[in-house]
Predict the structure.
Amino acid sequence: MRFLLWPSALAILSLAAASPAFAHDVTRSDSKIEIEGREARVYLTLNVKELKSPAIPLEQFDLNRDIPRVWDSIRQHYFVSSPLQPSEVRLESASVIGGPLVQLRILYVFPADITNLTVTSTIYEVMPAGHQHMMNVRAHGFVHEAILEAGRTEASFSAAKPSTPQVAWQFIRLGVEHIFTGYDHLAFLLGLLVATATLGSLVKIITSFTIAHSITLALATFSLVSLPTRLTESLIAVSIAYVAAENLFDFRIMKRYYITFLFGLIHGFGFSSVLREMDLPRSSLALSLFSFNGGVEIGQITFVLLIFPLVQDLTTSGWKRLKPAVSICVACLAVYWFVQRAFLG
């Protein structure tokens, strides 16, 4: 069993090292689509400094000069259709909304009223590896959400009101996806697991982390508390580095489940970024939040159930190199994430 841990326990480390894009760094674009009669109006926001084609250095970006090039590239990788193809597609306006973020307002006009809508995005082809496109579609007062990426380039929506089970399942799935593409959160959990000896300790740690991130996830989603994204993501990296340091130098300033609770509060703000970017209506916010949090927990528990038995097997077999080896890898990733988020993001 001892040789089975490395491909399993360190999978997250190799995935993270292989990709320049991480779950909570700014490596995503988003679009909000409003449907009214025959028209679908798209508000598409992207980071121009991430564009590989056309590659435009941020300090040289000029809105009037460069937007036609950006639009030519985006229209080849983003398309909206109904049962009928649009009779007109036009860029209505473009604006800089802060730093490197540019918003394109695109109008699609169809021959008949829109009853179903299909969105196709291959924007990831002109963005950094691992890029995700977050999107929502508003129709008749209701919101439908999806994430498009290399493994899923198309999403279809009905203009009809989604049922409660459909909304719940959609956000449960989104929460699970968020965990398994959230390499920083998985690295944090891995750092905790390699230093946890008993099932009782594991239950305390996971419970305290769950309670803490659920609190701040709710507060941030309902806009009751807000932290700057750069601060939140930098502190998440610090939390990962601290757990690795505790493992390496074998010290504790307090019981680990207390520390996990404090860091869980920070991680909750990171989880909330997905829901906040979707700009969900108040009418479905509670259900979306509860379901998303449930999906996050399913993802975490699945990861723990896969890794913890292997950690215990290696620990009881007397392999003393496990904790320092994994902790060094986790610490290196944490330092990289901190520098990237605090100074280069």
Notes: Residues 28-162 form one domain. The longest helix spans residues 282-316. The two ends are 40 Å apart (CA to CA). The beta strands are 28-36, 39-47, 78-81, 88-98, 101-109, 116-121, 132-139, 142-148, 154-158.
